[in-house]
Design a protein that fits this description.
Keywords: Cell wall, Membrane, Peptidoglycan-anchor, Secreted, Signal, Transmembrane, Transmembrane helix. It holds the Pfam family Gram_pos_anchor. It comes from Listeria fleischmannii. The protein has one helix and no strands. By secondary structure, the chain is mainly alpha-helical.
């Protein structure tokens, strides 16, 4: 995928995706807890 981002070996992209997934999971967990 060419998004105009500098190529850094993919480690930065993996870290970004991992942090995003953690945010989504944590947010969904908080929402589920609040609805109970």
């Amino acid at each position: 995928m060419k998004n105009g981002l500098p190529k850094t070996g993919g480690s930065e992209t993996a870290y970004f995706m991992l942090s995003g997934m953690l945010l989504v999971i944590f947010g969904g967990y908080l929402i589920l807890r609040r609805e109970k």
